[in-house]
């Protein structure tokens, strides 16, 4: 797995840059966050899914590496993006709550997969905690959205942009740190 991560450090940096862009857009358009977020998040999830599949194909070259987590992450990201593309108006207006629930599930599942990868790498590389932290931030975002939706769903919809923006900026910085650390590994 370390070999796959080293070879794909640039993709991890790219994911970090995309996360930073997602965070900035979420803060710039808070009043129209649902539509802006749907568009940016669909692109982010789709590109992240494609990049995860690229990493999986590269990782499959070595049978001892656990490349299947990248396949699963890629499928989840692409499926999420396709849903946003097929129903942009419905996803941003009528199904805004469903959108946030999908985001929460995506964040929790992909975060858990990143934590699993970090645990696998703990004895192999230094800085695996950055991958674990990225996964933990993703899981925390998912849980935070669920809690906010339960407490007050109507207030949560407009404030979700700031929650998502904060997560994206922090996760972007962490992914950039991980990518550059892997480059030096």
Q: Rg, please?
A: 16 Å
In percent, how helical is the residue content? over 70%
What structural class should be given to the helix and strand makeup? mainly alpha
Strand content: under 5%
* Strand runs, count: 0
Q: Which whole number gives the mean pLDDT?
A: 83
| Outline type | globular
Q: What is the strand and helix layout of this fold?
A:
Elements: H1 2-7, H2 9-28, H3 33-59, H4 68-86, H5 88-92, H6 96-121, H7 128-151, H8 153-184
Helix pairs in contact: 2-3, 2-8, 3-4, 4-6, 6-7, 7-8
Summary keywords:
single chain, 185 residues, mainly alpha, 8 helices, globular
What does this structure look like?
The chain is an all-alpha fold and 185 residues long. Helices cover 86% and strands 0% of the residues. It is built from eight helices and no strands. The protein has helices spanning 2-7, 9-28, 33-59, 68-86, 88-92, 96-121, 128-151, 153-184. The two termini are 13 Å apart.
């Amino acid at each position: 797995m370390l070999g796959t991560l080293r070879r794909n450090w640039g993709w991890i940096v790219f994911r970090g840059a995309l996360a930073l862009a997602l965070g900035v857009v979420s803060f710039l358009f808070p009043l129209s966050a649902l539509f802006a977020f749907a568009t940016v998040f669909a692109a982010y999830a789709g590109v992240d899914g494609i990049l995860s599949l690229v990493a999986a194909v590269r990782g499959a070259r070595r049978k001892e590496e656990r490349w299947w987590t990248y396949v699963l992450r890629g499928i989840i990201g692409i499926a999420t993006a396709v849903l946003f593309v097929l129903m942009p108006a419905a996803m941003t207006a009528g199904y805004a709550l469903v959108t946030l629930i999908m985001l929460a599930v995506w964040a929790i599942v992909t975060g858990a997969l990143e934590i699993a990868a970090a645990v696998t790498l703990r004895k192999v590389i230094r800085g695996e905690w950055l991958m674990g932290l990225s996964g933990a931030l993703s899981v925390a975002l998912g849980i935070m959205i669920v809690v906010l939706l339960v407490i007050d769903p109507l207030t949560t919809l407009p404030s979700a942009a700031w929650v998502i923006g904060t997560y994206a900026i922090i996760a972007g910085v962490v992914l950039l740190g991980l990518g550059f650390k892997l480059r030096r590994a």
